[in-house]
Write a structure and sequence with these properties.
PmbA/TldD fold, alpha+beta
């Protein structure tokens, strides 16, 4: 659909300019997807769908409109644009306006499409069978979860002359296994289809559930905490969103009182927006303003290295775009934490009194600037004493601050896991992470 999508984006830009707008950017995305839902260790629902979405950025006299729709009829879009032009006359000029940037050379990413995913979209049931079989290699009661596949195409045109196209594939899967009172969950988000990785998701979830089937009440205290990649991904997604220059501008970031070069984390910790790594789901060659993306550290060896910018925040802060537009909100494309040299067993052996947290949910911020947060442990939770896992526990609430968590990172795992599910929105490649002296409380308080 490359030519069709590009033709449509260019036509919509022309219609917007003809209607009276000064500037326009149009992104049209096509998704061909399939999903299998699993309940009670059986495939329960198989869905296939096609979706085409249209997003528009429109500017008139520094007044901004951002609009999205599923309509792809050019006549329908023309009527929408005319209505939007009338609406724009009632708006006030944006305090963060800056012109769309001039196009720059875009170097496409290689190998962003896996034909195996495209083929599997037609019949994904075999992948569900792999997950179910692998899950029941451990003595569990049942599993629930899903596997989702998609082939995505996007075209972007701007009134500055950018005309860009990119396609990619994506796989996402998670399994939650149940054994007695215990449960375990694992997930994967990948550009490519790997049956081995799907098996690892199922086996990991089931082994956690089996080991956690007779949990005891957890005791709130201050602990050394081993964060699984699932949990680290969730918390570092929050950190990445706070690294958006728009979050800093709006006063909702732990970095608003920091400057580039300030120490914000342990010296052992480096966090990348790895936008140009084709292996990582979410990577892309260009942002929503048509500028090339770059892979760069957000935090490098504990120091704040980069705030994420589009052209508007860059203009406000007198710097350059980092290729992270979002027309309004600059964002990370995909996250990667630099590896350490420890195995999970070595981390456990370092802990005198602590917990291994395999999953979490309900992460909430009480104060964005201070980074005061809480999150509830979910599924398998293990108490560690004198370097050994002693017993499974029931839920606790982790309640501390993000700056403290980042500063107290003590040890990083030597193995990567690619994580993406509904508690980890930004696809992330992460190891296990050991953090010292983190506060917990009862999850019901």
């Amino acid at each position: 659909m490359r030519d069709e999508l590009l033709s449509l984006t260019k036509n919509v830009v022309e219609k917007a300019l003809a209607s009276g707008f000064d500037e326009a950017a149009v992104k049209i995305s096509s998704f061909k997807s399939a999903m299998v839902k699993i309940a009670n260790s059986e495939p329960s629902v198989i869905q296939n769908w096609r979706y085409i979405g249209v997003e528009m950025y429109l500017a008139k006299d520094k007044r901004l409109l951002i609009f999205s729709t599923q309509t792809t009829s050019l006549d329908e879009l023309s009527r929408v644009i005319n209505n939007l032009f009338e609406t724009s006359q009632k708006l006030s000029p944006s305090p963060i306006y800056s012109p769309l940037p001039e196009p720059e050379k875009i170097e496409p990413l290689p190998d962003t499409v896996d034909k195996r995913i495209i083929d599997a979209i037609n019949d994904p049931s075999r992948l569900a069978e792999i997950l179910i079989e692998a899950s029941h290699r451990s003595k569990i009661d049942y599993i629930a979860g899903m596997v989702s596949l998609s082939y995505n195409e996007k075209a972007l045109s701007t009134s500055k002359g950018a005309d860009l196209y990119e396609d990619s594939t994506f796989l996402e899967s998670y399994i939650r296994a149940f054994s007695g009172e215990g449960s375990g969950q694992w997930a994967v988000g990948s550009r490519y289809l790997s049956e081995k990785k799907l098996e690892e998701v199922a086996v990991t979830a089931s082994e956690f559930a089996q080991k956690a089937k007779n949990p005891e009440e957890g005791i709130p205290d201050k602990y050394d905490i081993i964060l699984s990649p699932m949990v680290a991904g969730n918390l570092l997604n929050v950190v990445a969103r706070m690294s958006s220059a728009f979050s800093v501008f709006m006063g909702s970031s732990i970095f608003m009182r920091r400057r580039v070069g300030d120490k914000v984390a342990s010296e052992s910790f480096t966090l990348y927006d790895d936008a140009r790594n084709p292996e990582l789901a979410g990577s892309t060659a260009f942002d929503d303003e048509g500028l090339p993306t770059i892979s760069k550290p957000i935090i490098h060896k504990g120091l704040l290295n980069t705030l994420l910018h589009n052209s508007k925040t860059a203009s406000l802060m007198k710097t350059k775009s980092t290729g992270n537009a979002g027309w309004l909100f600059p964002r990370a494309w995909t996250l990667r934490v630099e590896l350490g040299d420890a195995s999970l067993n070595e981390m456990i052996s370092e802990v005198k009194k602590g917990i291994l947290v395999t999953n979490n949910w309900y992460t909430r911020l009480q104060n964005n600037v201070e980074g005061i947060f809480s999150t509830i442990t979910r599924d398998a939770l293990f108490y560690i004493e004198n370097g050994e896992i002693k017993r499974p526990w029931k839920k606790l609430r982790i309640a501390d601050t993000l700056p403290r968590l980042l500063q107290n990172i003590y040890m990083l795992g030597k193995e990567y896991y690619d994580i993406k599910w509904w508690e980890v929105d930004i696809p992330s490649r992460l190891p296990y992470i050991l953090v010292k002296d983190i506060k917990t409380s009862k999850h019901t308080t």
